[in-house]
Automatic annotation (TrEMBL):
GO terms for cellular component: cytoplasm. Belongs to the glycosyl hydrolase 13 family. GlgB subfamily. This is 1,4-alpha-glucan branching enzyme. The gene is Gbe1-001. Keywords: Glycosyltransferase, Transferase. It comes from Phallusia mammillata. InterPro entries: A-amylase/branching_C (IPR006048), Branching_enzy (IPR037439), GH (IPR017853), GH13_cat_dom (IPR006047), Glyco_hydro_13_N (IPR004193), Glyco_hydro_b (IPR013780), Ig-like_fold (IPR013783), Ig_E-set (IPR014756).
Length: 690
């Protein structure tokens, strides 16, 4: 299928493009590019509808791979375009190589039917090993796993994955008990990795996460979980970003049914669950991956240099290939239908949409950077198709783009000529915090620059703000808490020891940094597992370079559960922050109005969702009778105080005090009030309705 054809954009009608121009007038200069990509999207979707219908096309997993028929037989279908012959072998036929040969069909498809056994049972037993044999035209016989395999395992814990037939008896199969919860208006995301979700030095399980981690997440006040490294990946240390088997949930954590139980339990708690989906590239493994599936270097991928990502050492999909579109779009439907996920975080979007993958490209914000020949239109059209399809069948879905480039329209509807995501990650924010902590003394913090970084996002396009994610936790970097407190976390986090200046500063700034990011940085918030309580050190998976150690591939929940350690203070504050947002809903409100950003005082004041946010980043200067502007008149109370003793602070504010506004214009606000604002402290105030 050719994407480009002769589309030049001039004859294309984008239904709501004027709304896009109203939101962002600068894109009007690139109307032709926007219309051209929309035309490519529209034409591709029309072809799909005409050929098979979108619903059937995007449920390819029902027709491809291996399936049990109503009569308990087996139906197999594969797309192997370069094959001379295809065979199925396994324990079911005593590993006979040539006994079960597929029949060739049109367009590179192959089919095989197996009748049920004489007793009426399925000819292939549940959890028995099977494989494909691909005979090439040059006489090779290749052992392969079906791209549609739903369960693969490493029998000895390492080495090549094996394809296991997953067909549990009805009495053993898991059935969902809870419907999907309502779509949250304010998105508070807990980013998590199943395998590290334990303090023990081992790979943790789906069951452990269900029983021990889900209650923590719910109790903290998060309403959404983002699960990483679920799609099967042969190399554990890849953090799940070198996917080998796209339809298989990772077996190193347990079975498919145990993942279903995790999702079902989360839904019963009212939690949305997003999957970190990797469609930007694929692992280059041959024996247990997609690479050279039919013996050629192309098949699912571009041939030549365009099909390789040299920096990631991986393969790149050919998004213009009909069967690749079926495979990837069906992959998205599979996890929604089979596991009841509620949405996706799309990894590596920047790499997808630029021919140079955005490598060594310093995006300045100039609009010429987002349009032109250096843009990979095929990838953009795929993302538009994905978002459009998902919204068609799952109206309450949430999709998030990992895009560092800031492409305009990424989070505008496809009907406007946008790419269709709900949110993009505000990736500049964590980089700014790390840069400040590494390079600046506290008294040199640039308040105006902090404000700019937190608010520098495209109007009308929602962002997920975060102070740190898994990227900042990986080896070579450190958690925010470790940047702040470093080696003193080993010796001075016990309440038995004296509160040192470094620990005091670290606890105070950890809370303030996360709170201002939460309040000002976006329309959603994200935290990486363990960082809510200031997890120390970094994250490093077992590999040759660390003697295959799991010491840093874990989350030490035992630290926060120990009431004698100061980690509990950060955990308490994080929970209070999430629950306060749940009550007032600032993430669902428009961007905060910043009335004060005073460099000398190191003070930032803003209002959002009728909440007054006050931050004093000065290391030693407290302010008595400090006047701040506020829009609504009335009696105000403190609803969150980072300096509260319960949160490891000094308790310098009397929370019983009420603050009355004066009809005095200040900082361009109609009213004002006087507050006590201690050093290294943040206050949230709201009208006292009592």
């Amino acid at each position: 299928m050719e994407y480009g054809d002769s589309l030049n954009g001039s004859d294309v009608k984008v239904p709501n493009i004027d709304k896009f121009f109203e939101i962002d007038p600068h894109v009007k200069h690139f109307e032709g590019d926007i219309k051209r990509r929309y035309g490519m999207f529209e034409k591709t979707k029309e072809r799909i509808e005409k050929a098979e219908g979108l619903d059937r096309f995007t449920q390819g997993y029902k027709e491809f791979g291996i399936h049990v028929t109503a009569e308990n037989g087996i139906h197999c279908r594969e797309w192997v375009p370069a094959a001379k012959a295809v065979y199925l072998r396994g324990a079911f036929n005593n590993w006979e190589k040539w006994g079960h040969k597929f029949q060739a069909k049109e367009f590179g498809k192959w089919e095989l039917f197996l009748s049920s056994k004489e007793d009426g049972s399925c000819p292939i037993e549940h959890k028995s090993e099977i494989m494909l044999i691909i005979e090439t035209h040059d006489g090779q016989f290749l052992e392969r796993i079906s791209p549609w395999a739903s369960y693969v395992t490493q029998p000895d814990g390492h080495g090549t994955y094996k394809w296991m037939f997953w067909n549990p008896p009805p009495m053993e199969a898991y059935f969902f008990n809870h419907p999907r919860p309502p779509k949250p208006s304010s998105l508070r995301i807990y980013e998590a990795h199943i395998g590290i979700a334990s303090w023990e030095g081992k790979i943790a399980s789906y069951k452990n996460f269900t029983q021990n981690v889900l209650p923590r997440i719910k109790g903290l006040g998060y309403n959404c979980i983002q699960l990483m490294a679920v799609m099967e990946h042969a190399y554990y240390a890849s953090f799940g970003y070198q996917v080998t088997n796209f339809f298989a949930a990772s077996s190193r954590y347990g079975t498919p049914d145990e993942l279903k139980e995790l999702l079902d339990t989360a839904h019963g708690m009212g939690l949305y669950v997003l999957l970190d989906v990797v469609h930007s590239h694929a692992c280059k493994n041959v024996l247990d991956g997609l690479n050279q599936f039919d013996g050629t270097e192309s098949c699912f991928f571009h041939s030549g240099s365009r099909g390789r990502h040299d920096l990631w050492d991986s393969r790149l999909f050919n998004y213009s290939e009909w069967e690749v579109l079926r495979f990837l779009l069906s992959n998205l439907r599979w996890y929604m239908d089979e596991y009841m996920f509620d949405g996706y975080r799309f990894d590596g979007v920047t790499s997808m949409i630029y021919h140079d993958h955005g490598i060594a490209r310093g995006f300045s914000g100039g609009y010429h950077e987002y349009f032109g020949m250096h843009i990979d239109m095929e990838s953009l059209v795929y993302l538009m198709l994905a978002n459009d399809m998902l919204r068609t069948f799952f109206p309450s879905i949430i999709t998030v783009a990992e895009d560092v480039s800031g492409m305009p329209g990424m989070c505008r509807p496809v009907s406007e000529g946008g790419i269709g995501f709900d949110y993009r990650l505000a990736m500049a924010i964590p980089d700014k915090w790390i840069k400040i902590l590494k390079e600046c003394r506290d008294e040199d913090w640039d308040i105006g620059n902090i404000f700019h970084t937190l608010t520098n996002r495209r109007y009308g396009e929602k962002c997920i703000a975060y102070a740190e994610s898994h990227d900042q936790a990986l080896v070579g970097d450190k958690s925010l808490a470790f940047w702040l407190m470093d080696k003193e976390m080993y010796s001075n986090m016990s309440e038995v020891t004296e509160l040192t200046p470094i620990i005091d500063r670290g606890i105070a700034l950890h809370k303030m940094i996360r709170l201002i990011t939460h309040g000002l940085g976006g329309e959603g918030y994200l935290n990486f597992i363990g960082n809510e309580f200031g997890h120390p050190e970094w994250l490093d998976f077992p590999r040759a370079g660390n003697n295959s150690s799991y010491h840093y591939a874990r989350r030490q929940f035992n630290l926060v559960d120990d009431d004698m350690l100061r980690y509990k203070f950060l955990n308490r504050f994080d929970s209070a922050m999430q629950h306060t947002e749940a009550k007032y809903g600032w993430l669902a409100d428009s961007q905060g109005y910043v009335s004060r950003k005073h460099q000398g005082d190191k003070v930032i004041v803003f209002e959002r969702a009728s909440v007054l946010f006050l931050f004093n980043f000065h290391p030693n200067q407290s302010y008595t009778g400090y006047r701040v502007g506020v829009d609504k008149p009335g009696k105000y109370k403190v609803v969150l105080d980072t300096d509260e003793k319960y949160f490891g602070g000094h308790g310098r504010n009397d929370l019983s005090v009420r603050f009355f506004t004066e009809n005095q214009n200040f900082d361009n606000r109609q009213n004002s009030l006087l507050v006590y604002l201690p050093s290294r402290c943040a206050l949230l105030m709201a009208l006292d309705e009592e």
